[in-house]
Each structure stands twice: as structure tokens, then as C-alpha cells.
Design a protein that fits this description.
Layout: E1 6-9, E2 12-20, H1 25-39, E3 42-48, E4 63-71, E5 84-87, H2 90-97, E6 105-109, H3 115-121, E7 142-146, H4 148-155, H5 163-167, H6 170-181, H7 187-196, H8 201-220, E8 226-229, E9 240-244, H9 245-260, E10 264-268, H10 275-281, E11 289-293, H11 297-309, E12 313-318, H12 320-336, E13 340-346, H13 363-368, E14 378-379, H14 386-401, E15 404-410, H15 411-415, E16 417-421, E17 441-444, E18 450-454, H16 497-512, E19 532-537, H17 541-553, E20 559-563, E21 565-567, H18 573-577, E22 582-587, H19 592-601, E23 605-609, H20 618-633, H21 654-657
Parallel strand pairs: 1-8, 2-5, 5-6, 6-7, 10-11, 10-12, 12-13, 13-15, 14-15, 19-20, 19-22, 22-23
Antiparallel strand pairs: 2-4, 3-4, 9-16, 14-21, 17-18
Helix pairs in contact: 1-6, 1-7, 2-3, 4-6, 4-8, 6-8, 9-10, 9-14, 11-12, 17-20
Length: 659
């Protein structure tokens, strides 16, 4: 007779699914995410892929994981430390154990804890055999050994699969069990499986059976006596969907094409973690999108520049190594002053670096990584959903100011997901290409009389300094552009020293004038008494915001501002920086924005820098902020154990919440 199940209320929880790269952890995490999105929780996810295409099975380099943080309130990060780890083999346990807080629940598949797999993971003995003993490596954790594989194989026997194929459904068993533990709706997963495997009924039946078996195991076994409830989050009214950064960025580029009335052309070469943008945009021919998978990075951007010359919104997508290859062509786009959006989904470097890990170390490359004086605007999204708005903004700047624009996403944003309020297309800004349609320059005879008109491609708008954009084939607007220096106005090749100096300064001034169109920065300083300002860019928004919340809940003052525009900086940034005694700049690099701020504004910007290939941890960042706050106030700041003993509304430990 089974025990009566208890139901405990939690305000949030962090779950990490981990296993071999062939164990389906990304699919499992994605399905749990979709269930939580349908349920109405706020959520943030962190997929973590192995870099090797197929590392040796059962080894630590081959471990793949998916972390989801879901809550009944607004959250900003995927969480620092998982409350639940589902480990499919010894390598998954060993690779992730150090991230767990004491008291965390560990569900392990005992089937794969064989002698061979233990040796591959570096275990001299089976840690599951020593639970409760003096040398228990898992002491302090709530360990739940379950033969996930064995139970799964037994549950799908009727479908006549080989043992190997039957065992592949163990991820669905795990999903079913966790869905029961946290009261997730099962209908989305059943519908998904029914569509995915509609043509292979045996595989469909096995996956559904495994999923239901996992749910029933939680419901009936005495091993799991507690079911947890996380209520839906209160969110602004609207229609929401769960979205990844790459998908949101793709939709933003499509929307920019719609709102500008321009055909969209993507010239790209596949590279992790940007390839999904190419895949997604290829689906949208109905919106006037053309995609070209080029033979290399240089060909991709060359085709995009050609498309921009022909009157399209030119786009190229890549990661840091591809930007290095595209640098000469970016300079060509600067010289020709054509609209081009260059998407850099940053990853760990240098060289091939860490292809599947996140980093934001390409800021200085975006700023200066070209020969000559070749300034380009830089735009950076702050969250997966914000990739949509950032893409629209990058296109607006490119089209309005006739310039290539660098859009800096990163691997965390690209693969992570969050709920996204779908905007009304009519609320998106209209972008006017303002094509040149007639000659713009008067021809003057020797006596000063006007003898006619011709077209000068480098005459400039008085406000934006943008040059006219003429679609090839427009009668009377034939002109020459290229990589050699242009004569001011007429655009013919010029080697005159004074002209070169003027054109270099003019191109720089055009980029600076973009700042005139930027809204004032929003400073988050609730008390208006803070002496410490934390400033960031890109995906550090979540960890910085969560860290500032913790510091404030502990009773201390701190201000936060986040930059979307990194070149040019917003006009009010200097005044904001000078209002505070100390400025902290958290980055996933060795201090690139802090160098730029120090150089531009002569402020003593201090860096908080990690390059782990993972997002910053909010708790550790909160401690660093606390040190600065203490220095400015002349007192010791105590946030407790990494700020986790704060009241139960933001980024709080669910173990404490359930007490």
C-alpha cells in the first residue's frame, strides 16, 4: 500500500537534466520547459552542449545537460545551483555534483553505474554503494537511485524493440517522473511525441509508454513521497510563447524586412552557435526572405553586401572566428556605406576555442577589428526574447544611417529560452529606406548657369550624415562605389590627403550621430541613494539584475544600468557614471567594456570578470557588489550565505521556502 503523497508549495526550483550526449537530455529539458511554459511559470533555461561532435560514450567530455529555472514570480537567470539533478550515468554525476548545494535531490539511473562506466568517469568505486557510510561522497544530498533504464525497458516490452532501442526511451521516463514531481501538464508532451513519431508507431508507442510509466512511478512508488507545486507567475497581459534567442533574432530580422518594406537577404556559412538563424530564416520565403548557404564566411558576407547594393536588407550571421574572416569585407561595407546587419553569436575563444560555450569577448573585435578607421555601430540584446527587439533596432540603424551594424548575441542567449510576449506588428517602428529616385546634384556651366542634374552618391543628409541609397537600374542614378577612398559628394576615387582626412572624420561623425536617435538610459536605482553603480551589456543582464535584487533585499543600496548600444554610447551615459562613487562592470571577458568606459569617460570602472564558458553566477556577483557597497559606506556588508537567506520573492533558495 503506497503512502499518502504530500504536496509542498515552492516559489521556484532549478532542475538540471544531465547525461551522455546520446541520452536525449536536450529534448527532455526542452519538453519540460514547454510544459512549464504552458503551465504559466516564468522560466529561464541553460542548455549546455559538449563541444565534441561525439565524445566517447560515458566520459565527462561527452556530458550534455539542460538546466531550467521556473518560478511563480519574475526571474532573471537560469539559476546558480540546481536543486534537482537527474544524472543518467556516472560521468553526468561527477561533472555536475560540484554545482549542487547541500540538500539537493539527486536522481540517478543505477543501470549505467557499471564498472566500465565508473572507470570512464574516474570513480574507483561506485558511490551509490557507499550511501550512509563514512566515505559517502554523496553525503548531505537526497539521493534517489532508480533503475530508469530497466523500468523503461520493461514498460515498452509490448512494442517489440531491441533492448538498445527500448533503453533510448529512458529520457521520457525521467521526463514523466519529473513532470509528476512538479505537477507539469502532460498534454503538450503527448501531443509533441504523437506528431514527431507519427510515422513510426512502435517508437511512438514506446516513448508514450515510457513517459506514462515515469509519471505512474512517481504516483505509486514509496520512493517519492512529496509532490511539489509551483504556481503560475503573474505576468502582464498578452499572448506569450517560449522562445530561444536565435529564434527571436530570426523573427526580428523578418519583422525588420516587413517594417522597412525591403526584401531580406542572408548570406551565411554554418557555424556554432549561429547556424540556427540560417535554418530558421530559410523557412520564411513567404516574407520575402532569401537565404544563401555560401561556401565560406567571406563569400557569405560578400553576397550580403551585394544584396545591400541591390536594395535588400543584407544580413550575415556567424560567430567570432567568422567575424575575423569577414573583417575586410566589413571594411568594404563601411567604405561603400551600405546597410548591412552582421550577427555575431559569440562563443568562447580564441581560434576555435569553445564552440558550444558562451562568452562575450568579441566586443573589442566588433569595435576595432578592422584595418583603418572603420567605425561600426554595435547593438547587444540582453535576454533571449530581447534578441527580437535588438534585431529590429540593428536593422533600423543600418538602413537609416547606411552603415554595417554589429549585433552581438552570445551562446547563452542563442540557446537559452524564456517566455516572450508576442508584439503587435503595428507597434513595431516603421523603417524608411528612403531610396534615391532622382538626380540630386546640379551641373553648373562655366558661366554659373545650371545646365542639368546628375547623381552624387556621397551627398549627405544634414541630420544623419547618411548618403543616398539608389537601387541599381534606376534611370539617371548610375554611380560608382567600391573599396577605394571616395571623393566627398561625387564619390569618385580620390587620393587627396585632405579629402581622406575629411571622409574618415565624416564616417566617424555619422556613427556618433546615431546617439541622437537613442532614448535616455533607464537607471534602476529604487532608493536614489546608491553610491555603487553596476553596468553591463548583453547576457549579463540577468545575473546582474538578480545580484542587485539580492543586495537590495538584504537592505543595501545599489544602482543598475544596462547598455544596448555600445557604439555609439548613449549621450547621457557619462553623466550617469559620474553620479556614483564606484562603478562595477561584470563581463564574461577580461574587461573589455570597462576598458572602453575608462577610456571614454575617465571613470575608475572596476571589472568583475569570468571566462568559464558559462553565465555569471548571481550569488557570487552579489558578494562582489556587497564588498563595493561596504567600501563606500564604511561598514561590513553581510549578505548571508551568498545572499540566499533573503525573503521569499526573488532568487531565493526553495529549500528555505518550503520550511
Amino acid at each position: 500500500m503506497s503512502q499518502t503523497k504530500q504536496v509542498k508549495q515552492l516559489d521556484r526550483v532549478i532542475i538540471r537534466f544531465a547525461g551522455d550526449s546520446g541520452d536525449g537530455m536536450q529534448l527532455t529539458g526542452d519538453r519540460f520547459t514547454q510544459e512549464s511554459a504552458v503551465f504559466g511559470n516564468d522560466l529561464v533555461t541553460l542548455p549546455n552542449f559538449p563541444a565534441e561532435i561525439r565524445a566517447p560514450q560515458g566520459t565527462i567530455p561527452g556530458v550534455s545537460s539542460f538546466q531550467i529555472h521556473f518560478a511563480d514570480h519574475d526571474i532573471l537567470t537560469a539559476g546558480d545551483r540546481p536543486d534537482v539533478l537527474v544524472a543518467m550515468n556516472p560521468a553526468a554525476l561527477k561533472a555536475n555534483l560540484g554545482d549542487l548545494p547541500k540538500g539537493a535531490t539527486i536522481i540517478v539511473d543505477t543501470h549505467d553505474f557499471s564498472k566500465r562506466n565508473l572507470e570512464k568517469a574516474g570513480y574507483s568505486s561506485n558511490p551509490l554503494d557507499k550511501l550512509g557510510e563514512v566515505d559517502d561522497l554523496l553525503a548531505g544530498f537526497q539521493v534517489q537511485p532508480v533503475d530508469l533504464t530497466g523500468i523503461t525497458v520493461a514498460a515498452v516490452t509490448e512494442f517489440g524493440l531491441s533492448r538498445k532501442d527500448a533503453a533510448r526511451a529512458k529520457n521520457m521516463f525521467a521526463l514523466g517522473l519529473l513532470s509528476w514531481m512538479y505537477g507539469r501538464p502532460t498534454e503538450p508532451t503527448v501531443e509533441f511525441l504523437s506528431k514527431k513519431f507519427a510515422k513510426v508507431p512502435d517508437i511512438l508507442g514506446a516513448n508514450l509508454a515510457a513517459f506514462k510509466a515515469g509519471w505512474n512511478y512517481g504516483e505509486t512508488t514509496e520512493t517519492f513521497v512529496v509532490q511539489y507545486e509551483i504556481k503560475p507567475a503573474k505576468m502582464a497581459s498578452g499572448t506569450y510563447r517560449n522562445i530561444t534567442g536565435n529564434l527571436a533574432l530570426s523573427y526580428g530580422l523578418v519583422a525588420a524586412g516587413v517594417r522597412s518594406g525591403l526584401p531580406v537577404f542572408l548570406g551565411s556559412y554554418p557555424i556554432t552557435p549561429a547556424t540556427d538563424i540560417l535554418h530558421e530564416l530559410s523557412k520564411h520565403k513567404g516574407f520575402g526572405v532569401t537565404t544563401l548557404q555560401a561556401e565560406d564566411e567571406i563569400a557569405g558576407i560578400g553576397a550580403a553586401i551585394g544584396a545591400a547594393f541591390a536594395g535588400s536588407l543584407g544580413i550575415t550571421t556567424t560567430s567570432g572566428p567568422g567575424i575575423a574572416l569577414k573583417s575586410e569585407s566589413i571594411g568594404l561595407a563601411v567604405m561603400t556605406e551600405l546597410p548591412l546587419v552582421i550577427v555575431n553569436v559569440q562563443r568562447g575563444g580564441p581560434s576555435t576555442g569553445l564552440p558550444t560555450k558562451t562568452e562575450q569577448a568579441d566586443l573589442l573585435q566588433a569595435m576595432y577589428g578592422r584595418n583603418g578607421e572603420a567605425p561600426v555601430p554595435i547593438v547587444a540584446p540582453q535576454s533571449p526574447g530581447d534578441c527580437f527587439a535588438a534585431a529590429v533596432e540593428a536593422a533600423r540603424i543600418a538602413i537609416t544611417y547606411r552603415t554595417p551594424v554589429m549585433l552581438l548575441s552570445d551562446g547563452y542567449l542563442a540557446n537559452g529560452s524564456e517566455p516572450w510576449a508576442i508584439p503587435d506588428v503595428e507597434d513595431l517602428p516603421l523603417i524608411d529606406p528612403n531610396f534615391a529616385t532622382e538626380p540630386n546634384h546640379e551641373l553648373v556651366g562655366p558661366d554659373g548657369e545650371v545646365t542639368g542634374k546628375d547623381y552624387w552618391p556621397y551627398l549627405r543628409d544634414a541630420d544623419t550624415f547618411a548618403r543616398p541609397w539608389a537601387v541599381p537600374g534606376t534611370a539617371g542614378l548610375e554611380h560608382r562605389i567600391g573599396g577605394l577612398e571616395k571623393g566627398e559628394g561625387h564619390g569618385n576615387i580620390s587620393y587627396e590627403p585632405a579629402n581622406h582626412d575629411k571622409m574618415v572624420r565624416t564616417r566617424a561623425e555619422k556613427i556618433q550621430r546615431i546617439a541622437d536617435s537613442l532614448p535616455p538610459l533607464q537607471v534602476d536605482d529604487p532608493s536614489e541613494a546608491a553610491k555603487v553603480l553596476v553596468i553591463g551589456w548583453g547576457s549579463t543582464y540577468g545575473p546582474i539584475g538578480a545580484a542587485c535584487r539580492r543586495v537590495r533585499r538584504a537592505g543595501y543600496d545599489v544602482a543598475q544600468v544596462h547598455l544596448r548600444h555600445l557604439n555609439p554610447f548613449p549621450k547621457d551615459l557619462g553623466d550617469i557614471l559620474r553620479r556614483y562613487d564606484k562603478v562595477l562592470v561584470p563581463e564574461m571577458n577580461l574587461g573589455q567594456l570597462s576598458k572602453m568606459l575608462r577610456a571614454e569617460y575617465l571613470v575608475d570602472a572596476q571589472g568583475y570578470n569570468h571566462v568559464y564558458g558559462l553565465p555569471l553566477k548571481a550569488a557570487e556577483l552579489a558578494e562582489a557588489i556587497g564588498v563595493l557597497v561596504g567600501e563606500t559606506e564604511g561598514r561590513e556588508v553581510n549578505l548571508g550565505e551568498h545572499g540566499l537567506n533573503l525573503p521569499a520573492d526573488h532568487e531565493q533558495n526553495p529549500v528555505e521556502a518550503s520550511k
